[in-house]
């Protein structure tokens, strides 16, 4: 996955099966329609002072983007929900422009937008590996989808469950290649053509399938194998429910590209437009802090002990109780017989949701009591690694 995307120009770092959507730039960055600012005046991309952030205008991707920004204390304010321009009051001089995802990529390249949130698949398809597009944050944890090969669950494919097994089938010859139908329009004038001719055939060839022919299926793509006009399909998949309902299955190793929502920037804007780099830094910090805190809990418990060091030793004897860097141990003071003493110590650790109950059991086993659980909203690091990566890409 990483190799494929790097070969077409994007230095992406997708670490796990994804979450979103994908599209092409038109070569000249000097040709763009006049833009209108919040005050209604026409503004050229070269003279404008505002920083522009492009967000998806419709659908689940749009609502999930707005929810994430709200969770990061970056709520988008629209005077009228029908307007395509809005603001984020927490960041001065920032305009939000609601656009179709493919237009976000195009306008990043033309200089009409400085920042944008789109799916990695849209970026791959419409960005064409342009060096001016920089992925600032590649995993915003929503908008998951994948470009995947799917085959019938029946007939000659009934016992085929991997791309390797598909490649070993003797049926595919130069005279009778594996027929793969795609929903993308198969025309050189269509931006999606690039995704097919570069990723699809190369992916097949790299995985040992030399004889393959791609075509476009009209209507419901999932019906193509059942109608006999294709052996397999290449399509964007989210949950996979539609495939199963049409007796199709994904196969091991058959994911061509994984995608989720990403924060993308124009290199020219980051370097040349005042305030863009600083705004990007703030957005990245807020996003990182919130995303890192998702699914994490603060666990506080009291524990009897002779000293803070002795209590910390007991806590650290349990691997799942180490927290981010280790437990915080503080004395709990109480007054007995007129004297103040610290017979108990409060420990505070950070625990992932999936390990929560196990951690509570371990705390009890080493003497913990009065356990309190609180969800985390933000975890700010000393500095986000993605910021250092961004500065490195920019040569700063």
Automatic annotation (TrEMBL):
Entry protein name: ATP phosphoribosyltransferase
UniProt catalytic activity: 1-(5-phospho-beta-D-ribosyl)-ATP + diphosphate = 5-phospho-alpha-D-ribose 1-diphosphate + ATP
Entry-linked PROSITE patterns: ATP_P_PHORIBOSYLTR
Role, per record: Catalyzes the condensation of ATP and 5-phosphoribose 1-diphosphate to form N'-(5'-phosphoribosyl)-ATP (PR-ATP).
Its EC number(s): 2.4.2.17
PANTHER family found in the cross-reference section: ATP PHOSPHORIBOSYLTRANSFERASE, ATP PHOSPHORIBOSYLTRANSFERASE ATP-PRTASE
Key words of the record: Amino-acid biosynthesis, Chloroplast, Glycosyltransferase, Histidine biosynthesis, Plastid, Transferase, Transit peptide
Similarity section: Belongs to the ATP phosphoribosyltransferase family. Long subfamily.
Organism: Trifolium subterraneum (Subterranean clover)
GO molecular function annotations of the record: ATP phosphoribosyltransferase activity; magnesium ion binding
Compartment annotation: Plastid, Chloroplast
Chief location of this protein within or outside the cell: plastid
GO cellular component: chloroplast
Histidine biosynthesis HisG C-terminal domain: residues covered: 293-377
Pathway given in the UniProt record: Amino-acid biosynthesis; L-histidine biosynthesis; L-histidine from 5-phospho-alpha-D-ribose 1-diphosphate: step 1/9
Cofactors required: Mg(2+)
GO annotation, biological process: L-histidine biosynthetic process
Keyword set includes Transferase: yes
Domain (ATP phosphoribosyltransferase catalytic) ranges: 100-287
